[in-house]
Amino acid sequence: NYFKSSQFMSAVILESMSKASLLLIDVQNDFHAGGSLAVPGADADSLRIAEMIEANLDKIEDIYVTLDSHHREHIAHAKSWNTKADGSGSFPTPFTLISHADVVEGRWFPTNRANQKYAEDYTRALEEKGRFKLTIWPDHCIIGTHGNNVVDRLQVALNAWSAAHGGKAVKVVRKGENDITEMYSAIEAEVPVAADPRTQTNTQFVNDLKRSTRLIIGGQALSHCVNYTTRDLLRYWGPRNPSELTLLIDGCSPVPGCDADAELFINDMRAANVQLKLTTDAFSG
Prior knowledge:
- The protein has about 280 residues and is α/β, with parallel strands linked by helices.
- It has helices spanning about 1-15, 40-55, 100-105, 115-130, 150-165, 205-210, 225-235, 260-270, and strands spanning about 20-25, 60-70, 80, 95-100, 110, 135, 170-175, 215-220, 245-250, 275.
- It has a six-stranded parallel beta sheet with strand order 7-2-1-8-9-10, sandwiched between helices. Strands 3-5 form a two-stranded antiparallel sheet. A two-stranded antiparallel ribbon has the order 4-6.
């Protein structure tokens, strides 16, 4: 009986070790071909991830999907800024960088003039953190629009996984709904807003992810939201071994012009002992 019990427990442990959870970051229409902020390579990335899911339905315990979710008035959208204090000037073009000095010295003004002091404080805090200056992006992932939805090919695979697990739900986490801060990371905003818990460290989400035997990560974009979500998750991952995290190197691509950020991220994850794998090898080893 002891021998049989030991065999059973060993089988349970081996089966658990062969399974994983999946974290898909911002796999939305607006980051794919035809979207307002399309990332070159995203379509191929999502196809590979979808095929990986469909080939390993029984090996995936949970799937988490983050959704970048904005209003048009978001601080990183053009509508929120103007070259004139009275709003009679020009809006910034996409990919404009607005520095703290730009705000203090009057080169850019918040459209909502009541936000002047906040804009000065925000851009200073953003730069002090050392990740970014405020970047103006094309309006993207607007709540309630097609661009906010998961890309079709991946949604098919998510539906297949759900059906294979008796209707188990994919767990969805929204980020970026607060208009006055950026949220590249799904863990916490770049500059948390004290009055809005959604912008502060999402401890429940982190704890849910840490319950995974292994966590496999992919999505968009490698240079931004995949980058900073993974970095933030790694800060909270201890005492777990970073090798229990896997980054799909053929399941995410950088924003054009940000290849150096993506390369630095990959190198940092390699140094941290995060596993770097292809979608075809994600469940091996």
